[in-house]
Amino acid sequence: MITDYERLAAMNKDHLWHPFTQMKDYNNSDPLIIERGEGIMLYDVQGRAYYDGFSSVWLNVHGHNVPELNQAITEQLGRVAHSTLLGMSNVPAIELAEKLVGVSPEGLNKVFYSDSGATGVEIAIKMAFQYWHNKGIRGKTKFITMNQAYHGDTVGAVSVGAIPLYHDVFRPMLFPSHVIPYPYSYRHDGGEAGALEDTLTALRHLLETRADEIAALIVEPIVQGASGIIVMPPGCLSQMANLCRKYGVLLIADEVATGFGRTGAMFACDLEDVSPDLMVIGKGLTGGYLPVAATLATDEVYEAFYADYQEQKTFFHGHSFTGNPLGCAVALASLKLMEERNMIEGVRAKASFVERKLAALKERPHVGEIRQKGLMIGIELVRDKISRETFDWAERIGVRTSLRARELGMLTRPLGNVIVFIPPLVSSEAELDAMTDILEESIIHVT
Ligand code: PLP
Prior knowledge:
Catalyzes the transfer of the alpha-amino group from S-adenosyl-L-methionine (SAM) to 7-keto-8-aminopelargonic acid (KAPA) to form 7,8-diaminopelargonic acid (DAPA). It is the only aminotransferase known to utilize SAM as an amino donor. Its EC number is 2.6.1.62. The structure is a single chain. The protein is an alpha/beta fold. It folds into two domains: about 30-65 and about 340-445, Aspartate Aminotransferase, domain 1; about 70-340, Aspartate Aminotransferase, domain 2 (3-Layer(aba) Sandwich), CATH 3.40.640. The protein has helices spanning about 5-15, 25, 55-60, 65-75, 90-105, 115-135, 155-160, 165, 190-210, 235-245, 300-305, 325-340, 345-360, 395-405, 430-445; strands at about 35-40, 40-45, 50, 110-115, 140-145, 180, 215-220, 225, 230, 250-255, 280, 295-300, 365-375, 375-385, 390, 410, 420. It has a seven-stranded mixed β-sheet with strand order 4-12-11-10-7-5-6, with helices on both faces. A four-stranded mixed β-sheet has the order 1-2-3-16. Helix 5 packs parallel to helix 12 and helix 13 (about 345-360) packs parallel to helix 15 (about 430-445). The chain is globular, with a radius of gyration of 22 Å. The mean pLDDT is about 95. The structure holds pyridoxal-5'-phosphate (PLP). Pyridoxal-5'-phosphate binds near residues 117, 118 and 257.
């Protein structure tokens, strides 16, 4: 008799192609098959429990199977599951748009929905491009991005991406973007000040010489995520924003990973009082429940599209599920819970707890740097702490650490040699304590 697990594992192997996964490796491993979740725990079909130590890819806010969020969906389900936003509207989409404008940085007054971070980025890029076109300013067609940036996997988002492992193979089919250095202080000879200076100098130079051909700068504000949770030096984002304003280039803030309290502010832009022209949100927007994303725009951007139809300034973009009522209803419920639970203040307190807890880990021989902003944490492992020599890629130190954490009851997914710890915002101190213990034990075991 085969078990349920064996049956599912065999079907998984036969038919399922997983994202960002080398299937040859995966099919030679014991697949983890999740059956249910409760609080910040996930349970597999064999009944084993795991802490969700990376918030199911950086998006979980309130935990799993949350009564208030479940109720918001079922109530909306009793009304209508989906109706289009093409030329008509629905109640939760309207209410959520108003709510989002209220919590977003000053000036962002219009909401355009989509269904994933990448599609939100796609929209921001197209809006920025068409904004200049609609204003009759020709030639501002290019984008600036940052080294090692990640903005999603659709073709436009990959065009402004700069992680060679993910993006280089597609280069021939992409539009080229200008790439400026990201301030990676840990690996810069001049440290934080030197890294900051390099970034600002490169941006300033590009803007001084080529602003007339540049539509926008796209940036992951304060924390660059997929490159290894790399935190900008203080003042970097606001100085970049000032330069964009000075030279007439739009600023697109990609808050897909950093939004909704993750960094200890509602949005990372708030940490430096930055008001972008376009802002992309996703992941935590629905508390991590359903695939809704949005691109927020200023009135200035919106008005460039607002014209008589024959002027041909319409933004011809949309998806079948744009503004899905179930997703918008759960996003509204998630934002309400965040407010009721005073979650952002809570994140700051929890972040300090984690920082104190991880301090001892800094002394370990193979822990190069612990980077943290709010509850977004990356631990870079190195072979040699003094020279900062990296572990060889083939040693898969990150993967092995994550596998050990899984054995000890916590899920996470590494970024190369960087161990990622992005717990659900709702995690209690006791849960954070238990998870950081597992992290520490896994790192010590593997290194
Ligand atoms: N932008 C950033 C900064 C991200 O971190 C991600 C995903 O991790 C995306 C965009 C893409 O979002 P999605 O996976 O929902 O398409």
